[in-house]
Amino acid sequence: MTTTSSHKKIGTEHPGQYILSIRLERDNIYFSVYNPAVDNSFQSCKSRFPSGKECLPALENFVYEHPELLQPYKKTYIILPSDRFTFVPRNLEPSGETAPYYTYCFPGTSEKILENCLEYNQIYNLFGIEADLYAFLVRTFEQPIILHHLSPLCEYFYSKSRINGNEKMYVNIESNRLDIVCFNAQGLLFANTFEYRRPHDAVYYILNVWQQLTFDQQKGEIHLTGSNRLKKPIVPVIQEYISCVIPSIFPAQLFKIGKETLNAPFDLIVTPLCGL
């Protein structure tokens, strides 16, 4: 049984000028390629793995069926959503010996521990990946930059949060999950991911985090990313409690490389803008 994909044939005449970005979950994969210097160059593929098949064998089959993934790209990013992560302030561990913090949070782990250094936020994001999956990624792709999915969101929204000094919550809404990243004038306060089934569950997580952080209902801001279809049932309820609830401005440079970016995973498309 093979994967089911929905995409046109992806081809690049000069792959060394293109950026490859892959978002890998246990049951699906999304990847895109584009040339930052060429308008409307964005091409993408989304596929769900066969039900019941483990991630690594399914990924191996997918790569075999999509040889365009193996070209020598300018950069290759691999985004891994995971709930097994922890943040460590850089001033807490100036030597860079961060692995013990992860093993303290997840004792007995046999995972490969990876570290994303978030320069804007001055923190390390530590996360685990299965050792055999990690080995496959590094031998298959040329110098891949492997990132936890919250890393690009934290870095991208940091610069946006510096405007006017108000408390800000950024919410990235997906079909069954939402990412919440919060800042005040001093910097990052909170970043986490929540699974939800119904819109009111998503509302609960958003308002609960807002309350826990004691954000101001009149001055604080909520910025939303995600499709209008997903936001539509959530926004009116939030607006009953928070005065400023607005869509996050979509990056103009991404829209320029292709309208299809509007439907791509937000953490994936903003990654090249973050300096990671």
- Compute the number of strand runs: 14
Widest sheet: strand ordering: 1-4-3-2-5-9
Which percent range fits the helix content? 25-40%
Structure classification? alpha/beta
Work out the strand percent.
25-35%
N-to-C SSE string, H for helix and E for strand: EEEEHEEHEEHEHEEEHEHHEHH
> How would a crystallographer describe the biggest sheet?
6 strands, mixed
Characterize the quaternary organization of these chains. single chain
The total count of helices amounts to 9
The end-to-end distance, rounded to whole angstroms, is: 36 Å
Radius of gyration: 19 Å
The average pLDDT is 92
**Overall 3D shape:** globular
Ranges with pLDDT <50 over ≥5 residues? 1-7
Descriptive overview:
The chain is of the alpha/beta class and 276 residues long. 27% of the residues lie in helices and 30% in strands. It has helices spanning 55-65, 99-105, 131-140, 150-161, 199-212, 228-231, 235-239, 252-257, 266-270, and strands at 4-6, 19-24, 28-34, 43-48, 75-80, 85-89, 112-118, 123-129, 145-148, 168-173, 177-184, 187-195, 221-225, 244-247. Mean pLDDT is 92; it is low at 1-7.
